[in-house]
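Sat 14:20. Reprocessing the chain from the morning session after the first attempt stalled halfway. Input below, unchanged.
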Amino acid sequence: MEKKAVLLHLVCGVLAVFSVAVVKAEDPYKFYTWTVTYGTRSPLGVPQQVILINGQFPGPRLDVVTNDNIILNLINKLDQPFLLTWNGIKQRKNSWQDGVLGTNCAIPPNSNYTYKFQAKDQIGSFTYFPSTQLHRAAGAFGGINIYERPRIPIPFPNPDGDFSLVVGDWYNTSHKELQQTLDSGKSLPFPAGVLINGQTSNTFSGDQGKTYMFRISNVGLSTSLNFRIQGHSLKLVEVEGSHTIQNTYDSLDVHVGQSVAVLVTLNQPPKDYYIVASTRFTKQVLTATSALHYTNSHTPVSGPVPAGPTYQIHWSVKQARTFRWNLTASAARPNPQGSYHYGKITPTKTILLANSAPMINEKQRYAFNRVSYVNPDTPLKLADYFNISGVYSSDSIQTVPSSGSAFVATPVVPTSLHDFLEIVFQNNENTLQSMHLDGYDFWVVGYGFGEWTPAKRKTYNLVDAVTRHTAQVYPNSWTTILVSLDNQGMWNLRSAIWERQYLGQQFYLRVWNPVRSLYTEYNIPSNALLCGKALGRHPLNDLEFFGV
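Finished this time. Tokens:
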């Protein structure tokens, strides 16, 4: 009894300290109500069903400041369960709010769920989109811009304006038909077009002599894009929350799931200029154009649309290697990015992941290390929390590729809080891959052709590799990332190419600490939706969470 009283005292003390910290921080709260509905739009000139948020296609842009608390009530008026995920938001200590099927029950039709998360220690350009089924093919995506706090310097003058461009490939086919195609064991057809902010044509206006930020995010399903502005240079300043060395480019490749921010100075004669997004590494090139309009212009866009890069893989790899971390710039915190010397840390584990496109039971599937993921009825995070066995396996996926037939499972890779991982993505296919990890950003330390071997470590950039949340892997090539597992939870590692994700190219990292503490992970939200084998379970309050 005495031991229990002491433990209760300690727990209360921890909660008191936590509460005081929250009160003292006074981080602002921002409240939103988003209603998700179907609507009819004609993005490519053909009327089709799309998914709207508050009547908007694409969805509303979220503009927040570092450490803002976001309280967002999502009301699902669709005829299917629905979730949004916050692409690149780290959800510190809070994988409960990640919005993927491994952490959350989908919101039933005519129901709601209130997301509660913080833009903790982040700055930069991000996105949100549906994580359920093929809803992403119908819309409900948008930009998230996290601005710096007062007195936190950024490594460039404040721009005179800020444009967010959500760009992606698009299908005229409904999301339900696309899902039926995948469920039948077939691949998706080639997209019908490319959209910029939900349209094939937009106008962005600015004053001659001024400098504007363009945030470009690829929210498409499958296709890499090249972005360029006729007659204007693109100065890269930020990649998914990472301030970069400010190199200047004529055009930039942006792969599925990625975001970049560039500064564009309107230093040309006053007229209108083409803004172009076109597909990369495709036999048929799809193009969307918009206009950069000088406010003192009386001349519309004219001449041929600026062509994209004629060189393919090698050109793109060479460009990717020029993306470097600005070591002296601060990010969301005042300390320089380069104060964390990632290259001097010895990895605790290496995971070598080979993607593949096997046929299983005569249907197309996708896999990592021969394992093709299937979603269980019970989210993995809930199974973990309630100690429900039989939902996932911790040993089905190996940390190195092996020979044999592919199979379906629900794999989780067990790791420990504060592990430092080396993850090598080995792509032996002839198509470009795009890989994403929730809950983290990571250092992209190497790209190389052919088969990865330990000797390739000599080519790694261990000084100023850029950090980001989504990395491309070129055909018949490898990409290596380093990631510091400082965020406890259940985190989805997946292909950002949605067909591959939907048909199994994903798994979860279980970042675990056996000591339960609010300092490392928050308790289950009081409004958490329960489903599957978690239905009827009793969530623990904070005292029960500590075992009191």
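The helical segments are 2-25, 175-183, 313-320, 380-385, 498-502, 542-545.
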